[in-house]
Amino acid sequence: MRPHARRLAVVLPLSLALSLALFPAAAGAETAASEALHELFDREWEWRLRESPMLATSVGRHEWNDRLSSVSAEDEARRAEETRAFLAELDAIDREALGVTDQINHDIFRSQLANRVESFEFGDHEIPINADSGWHSSFARLPQNVPLATPQDYENYIARLNAFPTYAAQHIANMRSGLARGMTLAHVVLEGIEDTIAAHIVEEPEESAFWEPFESFPVGVPESEWGRLRAAGETAIRESIVAAYQSFFDFMVEEYKPGARRTLGASELPEGRDYYQLQIRIYTSLDLTPEEIHQIGLSEVKRIRQEMEAIIERVGFEGEFADFLTFLRTDPRFYAETPEELLMRAAWIAKRMDGKLPALFKTMPRLPYTVEAVPDAIAPKYTGGRYVGAAEGSTQPGRYWVNTYALENRPFYTQEALTLHEAVPGHHFQVALSRELEDLPNFRRYSYISAFGEGWGLYSEFLGIEAGFYTDPYSDFGRLTYEMWRACRLVVDTGVHAFGWSREQALDFLAGNTALSLHEVRTEIDRYISWPAQALSYKLGELKIKELRRRAEAALGAEFDIREFHDAVLLHGAVPLPVLERQIERFIAEAEG
Known about the structure:
Layout (H helix, E strand, L loop, with lengths): L4 H4 L18 H25 L1 H6 L14 H20 L7 H23 L12 H5 L2 H4 L5 H31 L11 H6 L13 H4 L7 H37 L12 H13 L5 H25 L6 H10 L8 H22 L8 E5 L11 E4 L9 E5 L12 H8 L4 H9 L6 H4 L4 H17 L6 H26 L4 H11 L4 H13 L6 H20 L5 H9 L6 H16 L1
Parallel strand pairs: 1-3
Antiparallel strand pairs: 2-3
Helix pairs in contact: 2-4, 4-5, 8-11, 13-20, 15-16, 16-19, 16-20, 19-23, 20-21, 21-22, 23-25
């Protein structure tokens, strides 16, 4: 048994001690405690940036732009020990002397530190990939994620290319350790994963995704430097990038896939049931059991199914529910003929929603976004769409990725819901706005709390009703398909990871209750198998936001202002769901006067 696990387990208190606000500590004690707390925040943040140079680059700090993290087992253990020391310092600060805002900061910070330590104790670093992505695919976006405006920027970029073999070797060593003790992905989800690696094993540097910066240079790089930098880039790609990806490919094909466990659920991992409970707490911010989540999911599936069947009746379809799903999956009217057609439709939906935002929001982010196709190297096993944020201080926009691979599996009828979730008013809107909240501690500005972010994304799909979307019944059925998809996740994720469901059971449940394409059903189920509990965050977060909105509407009546409510939800950044509940309770109390 891990010696620190039970001591570090954290569940954020539901009340957040609001009663303390009625009996505040003496001003001097509160000031001293607050100063100590924020000094710790700042010091840990600087440590975090030094340990994670790519994170530093992404938030606009450029002192370590020539480096990658060391992810060796020794450094992972050292970081865990240093995080325990931060926890000890935090616990020495008198939480009761803090004001309400700093108590919230304290509790979020403590949960982050504790979760980080406990994740290490379970060996989470030994599974650094999932079915559709991982360190190898995220690194391939290096050209888009770093500054490339000066010769020094290019030197830093090349240094990172040359650092990649060590970084890859460390990940491989961690994965090999996981193999030895059964801490691996399930074998069944690994089909085709070598293709995401092989895409970077090229004959010529010009064929590599990492060559893009050398095709043309910005005005800040003198022409006299071009030849030298190109030559250095070519050498780095040939000798570092291609070689490292080849090593990972060989390891994956010869060792990892053959040795990966043949079991399915997280409960089959070492200390698997406790590990899954930790993942539930990390991704939902709630202290719920798998049994409770499973029942919530079944209840939501039943409710949404009734709404879906009402639409089938309204359009006059003759046949069973399964027949209607087959019709949606096979009728050509619902599918694009070219990738450009799908991308243009997504862009049109996004632009229409841009025009609706002022009616729904008082405060909006400054950063723009664009619409792009999912990169070819990862598209076959990737989800239908995703949001990719921009590095702080860069000249890049946010990116709404649309998967144009296998167009026969990318229906129009889910496009509105997908776009509102990933672009606006969903992930781009929320993430960009959070990063612009300069009064928050840095660890909060740049934290992504899944239950909040994914719950907001699903709530954003619902907002499309009020914004005038889903007027076509098939698109409305697509919206319900997406909501049903998230409800099914509660059932499937817990079914697989806690109750021994087979992959076939999970596939049948999702395929039988949604109009997702069968290709997407397969990629999604493999994602849930390889990423325990992450899929739970969407529906549980959305249910909480909707519940709090109903509570505010009931309390305020005609005085309820949707724009003010959305400010109350978003302008404190991403927070755990119990903290969000306290925020909305204060919003209601202040509005009532």
